């Protein structure tokens, strides 16, 4: 799996297809987060969420973890353009969570935006277990992703979207999964209970705030 090829076009493509809805979904709970020490952004792509997170000014250290060199480069450049003063706040890790461990432990907040949908069931269990094992006892997990909407017509519409998107990403990025798996059960088995949920694009996307309690 590699997002290097698609990285330079990711933002444009997303805006053509979904306008600003994915970014609204990523940032849905940002203003409601408490101040925390250590944050891990996992599979975080080209850095648009990172800049919004930094504007909140609530975090002491951010670890930016991605397996694509191109995505990491775009995120680093975006951060530099936004504010070079903030560079010391962020540490970038070129890390493939399928084959490597989390670079550090004791995270208070972990964020997976449009990341968990890349994995098949085995990959999903593996990645969630690794992330959860690196979290503090009361950690927060922010999660944004696609979902299969409820109701007949929205369901048909979302299934059609998923089909198109999975074929596209299997070709351009060689992603593991062929269909969307809801990670709720695995997240709950690791103690991350749902605290709040918001839906976007008529239920095609959801943002969840989960916490270990
Ligand atoms: C669909 S993109 C989403 C990017 C971003 N989070 C967003 O909301 O647009 C998935 C991201 O996960 C990264 N990724 C895929 N597999 C990974 C893995 N095994 N370990 C770490 N990062 C991975 C990709 O390089 C890419 O940046």
From TrEMBL:
Entry's Gene Ontology molecular function annotations: methyltransferase activity
Gene Ontology biological process: methylation
Superkingdom of source: Bacteria
Pfam family, one: Methyltransf_12
Keyword vocabulary terms for this entry: Methyltransferase, Transferase
Keyword Transferase among record annotations: yes
Chain ranges of the Methyltransferase type domain: 42-134
Name of the protein in question: tRNA (Cmo5U34)-methyltransferase
Species assigned in the record: Gimesia aquarii
């Amino acid at each position: 799996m590699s997002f290097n090829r698609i990285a330079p076009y990711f933002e444009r493509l997303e805006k053509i297809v979904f306008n600003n809805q994915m970014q609204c979904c990523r940032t849905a709970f940002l203003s409601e987060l408490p101040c925390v020490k250590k944050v891990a952004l996992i599979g975080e792509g080209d850095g648009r969420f990172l800049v919004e997170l930094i504007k909140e000014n609530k975090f002491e250290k951010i670890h930016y973890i991605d397996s694509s060199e191109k995505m990491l480069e775009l995120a680093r450049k975006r951060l530099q353009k936004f504010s070079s003063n903030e560079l010391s706040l962020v540490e970038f890790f070129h890390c493939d969570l399928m084959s490597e461990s989390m670079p550090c432990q004791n995270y208070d907040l972990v964020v997976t935006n449009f990341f968990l949908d890349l994995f098949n069931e085995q990959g999903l269990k593996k990645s969630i277990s690794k992330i959860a094992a690196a979290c503090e006892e009361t950690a927060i997990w922010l999660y944004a992703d696609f979902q299969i909407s409820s109701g007949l017509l929205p369901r048909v519409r979302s299934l059609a979207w998923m089909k198109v998107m999975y074929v596209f990403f299997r070709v351009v990025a060689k992603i593991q999964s062929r269909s969307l798996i809801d990670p709720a059960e695995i997240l709950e088995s690791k103690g991350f209970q749902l605290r709040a949920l918001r839906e976007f694009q008529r239920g095609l996307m959801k943002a969840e705030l989960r916490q270990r309690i």
